[in-house]
Design brief:
Strand content of chain B: over 45%
Structural class of chain B: mainly beta
Oligomer: heterodimer
Number of strands of chain A: 11
Radius of gyration of chain A: 14 Å
Structural class of chain A: mainly beta
Helix content of chain B: under 10%
Largest sheet of chain B: 7 strands, mixed
Order of helices and strands of chain B: EEEEEEEEEEE
Largest interface: A-B, 25 and 27 residues
Number of helices of chain A: 0
Distance between the termini of chain B: 33 Å
Shape of chain B: globular
Number of strands of chain B: 11
């Protein structure tokens, strides 16, 4: 069974203090590693998809990277508006259609001004 | 519509009653997913549709849970004989492509069974 483990569970940063969130996974056949952002009271919002080891994607202050066993979400010079829960998910390989996401528990990021 | 719409936003029901949760996906989205999310946890997969066909229902907890998408658009998740342990946030998501790709989530239905 797929497993997705995120660490740390919670992270407090000062504005401008860069850091990284970790997502380690075990999956029989990876069909995509996904990062989502979730604000309180809202549904998850898609950020990135990574498909192969070595792949990187960037969006504003966020950069996601992927290895064979884990993914990192790097946050450079964060701002208070980056505060949210960041969810990692893997797409399950089943008959060639990654229609099922297995989510981690998320990392609650708080950025203080 | 502009986004995935779920109704009702909040539902309080008595134990033993049946409830129906509705999801209206983004127009033209082929795939529709139902998830359940407990507080402080990531979403947990329940079931998935490609057009009107239910492709996977392996995440449905038991036979009290069922879902349909008869015309390949709006979907309904039905819980029969609700129990307190069914209380949770139920989320629907849709995506344009057959693969998961970029899934758009709705705001969810908060179900409370008393």
């Amino acid at each position: 069974e797929d497993q997705v483990t995120q660490s740390p569970e919670a992270l407090r940063l000062q504005e401008g203090e860069s850091s990284s969130l970790n997502c380690s996974y075990t999956v029989s056949g990876l069909r995509g590693l996904f990062w989502y952002r979730q604000d309180p009271g809202k549904g998850p919002e898609f950020l990135f998809t990574l498909y192969s080891a070595g792949e990187e994607k960037e969006k504003e202050r966020l950069k996601a990277t992927l290895t064979k066993k884990e993914s990192f979400l790097h946050i450079t010079a964060p701002k208070p508006e980056d505060s949210a829960t960041y969810l990692c998910a893997v797409g399950e390989d089943s008959g060639g259609s990654n229609y099922k996401l297995t989510f981690g528990k998320g990392t609650l990021l708080t950025v203080n001004p | 519509g502009a986004g995935v719409s779920q109704s009702p936003r909040y539902k309080v029901t008595k134990r033993g009653q049946d409830v129906a949760l509705r999801c209206d996906p983004i127009s033209g989205h082929v795939s529709l997913y139902w998830y359940r999310q407990a507080l402080g946890q990531g979403p947990e997969f329940l079931t998935y549709f490609n057009y009107e066909a239910q492709q996977d229902k392996s995440g449905l907890p038991n036979d009290r849970f069922s879902a349909e998408r008869p015309e390949g658009s709006i979907s309904t998740l039905t819980i029969q004989r609700t129990e307190q342990r069914d209380s949770a946030m139920y989320r629907c998501a849709s995506s344009l492509e057959r693969d998961v790709g970029e899934a758009f989530f709705g705001q969810g239905t908060r179900l409370t069974v008393v």
